[in-house]
Write the structure tokens for this entry.
Amino acid sequence: MNQRPDGVAKGSCAARGAVELHAALKEQLKDTGLARVEARACTASCLDVCWAGPVIAVEPDGHFYGRVTAADVPEIVASLRAGTRVERLVLPPRDFDEQTAGPALPVVRGG
Amino acid sequence: MNQRPDGVAKGSCAARGAVELHAALKEQLKDTGLARVEARACTASCLDVCWAGPVIAVEPDGHFYGRVTAADVPEIVASLRAGTRVERLVLPPRDFDEQTAGPALPVVRGG
């Protein structure tokens, strides 16, 4: 998971809540019985869409959720159970290019 | 990337060469101009197929390479360029279950 030293202007996914996001996703997948059997919450090194981070690459479905916060996790888990996706979080093509992407999430802590 | 303390009987992907594997893949993707534009070598937390590790989840293609060593990297990079896959490394369904999987790679160092 991308982390940078405190105070770096660019921030990082960790500074935008990725650590808590991963923990929440992992816990709620476990609570709903999806963990291991149906879905696994893995961390990854930088996926190179910093401006839209934290992102979740949903595989094998092949889409990215972007600007995800821990508050989105219940909806993500429910959609995994239902076999649907959370359309409002799916990154459109323009968000894979920093020049055309929408605004980044605010940095919520130093790291 | 999965790592365990030195001497743990189960070993780990790191103990089976995953660190060097990732470095070789990243470097050779860069050398061939595939990095950023066509392919990105990301690390991930444990993908839950320990017995077949190190593994590479090839996305969005949707297959796993298993028991991969740094020696396999040139062939992997060449196949990415060619739009093919390295069949001998693709994990068959039986390798996703520890009870039916083939033998693990030997541990090459403690960690």
Summary: Chain B has two helices and two strands.
